[in-house]
Design goal:
The structure is a single chain. It is built from 12 helices and 4 strands. The radius of gyration is 23 Å and the shape is elongated. It starts with a strand and ends with a helix.
């Protein structure tokens, strides 16, 4: 591998086939110049971007932040990649590193932001939230800075964003919408749903993907009229709730969900009810 650019003493970029790759390692760029061969044994971490623009952004970011901030951010991302099942978009290296640097700068100046989505993130994205907790513990251990628990939530949301390759605004909308739908369903059924149940977990997963489809305009719409009639006939109360969900989404977000999406909501609403098994008998 041949060095393409020197970003700083510890970070360089190389060409690997047709991809530009940022590699990190202690002293990896010291006294090196473009065209020199890379000592691969010195590589500690790699950032493979989807395009050159991301490499340029990452390079500019690296130049503007302390090395320790970069190192702790990389460790959090590498840990997330190990423990989380979904692939993270390479953009997380830019967005999360930038966020952590900003959070540390704010902490140094005694400025902390609260995050209103703490309970939602804990409930809907437990794996991402645990990585967020790991992240703030690592920052305290490595940098001696104690960040508030709200920052674990912010780290988690950046990871969610990187999993679904949307933008942060969409991730925030998705998280809020899931909570709003759960509240609506509980109110309509007059019960508190069992958030430890298998069907509840499946419902949350369904809502995550439904919300992503809503905000990216990729809703399912096969127009299977017979299937719609069958489900609405079998579960009229649940279908009515799914229609109310559709109306709520339109009223608040000006997004229209299809009848097919309402049908799948109906099936999930049926399953999450505490006495659903008895009703099927």
């Amino acid at each position: 591998m041949v060095i393409d650019r020197i970003i700083n003493n510890n970070v360089i970029s190389i060409l690997d086939g047709d991809k530009e790759v940022v590699v990190m390692g202690k002293g990896i760029g010291f006294k090196k110049k473009p065209g020199d061969k890379l000592d691969e044994s010195a590589v500690e971490k790699k950032f493979v971007a989807d395009n050159k623009a991301e490499v340029d952004k990452f390079g500019e970011l690296i130049k503007s932040i302390p090395d320790l901030h970069l190192q702790v951010s990389m460790e959090i991302i590498e840990y997330a990649k190990l423990v989380m099942p979904r692939r993270l978009s390479p953009s997380v290296y830019i967005s999360l590193t930038d966020h952590i640097n900003f959070a540390l700068e704010r902490a140094k100046n005694g400025i902390n932001f609260s995050n209103p989505l703490i309970e939602e993130v804990r409930g809907f994205y437990p794996s991402e939230y645990l990585v967020g907790e790991y992240g703030i513990a690592l920052i305290e251990r490595e940098l001696g800075v104690r960040l508030p628990v709200d920052e674990a939530v912010s780290i988690a949301l950046h990871l969610v964003n990187a999993e679904y390759t949307g933008d942060m605004s969409t991730t925030m909308h998705v998280t809020s919408l899931i909570k709003e739908v759960i509240d609506l369903v509980e109110n309509e059924l007059g019960v508190k749903l069992n958030d430890m149940g298998l069907y509840y977990a499946r419902f949350i997963t369904h809502l995550k993907f439904l919300s992503q489809r809503i905000f990216t305009g990729q809703l399912m719409d096969n127009q299977d009229e017979e299937f719609i009639r069958m489900i609405s006939g079998l579960y009229p109360k649940e279908f009515e709730i799914s229609e109310k969900i559709g109306k709520f989404i339109f009223d608040k977000y000006k997004k229209t969900i299809t009848k097919e999406e309402e049908v799948y909501l109906t099936v999930h609403i049926r399953r999450i009810q505490p006495d659903a098994d008895k009703k099927e008998d």
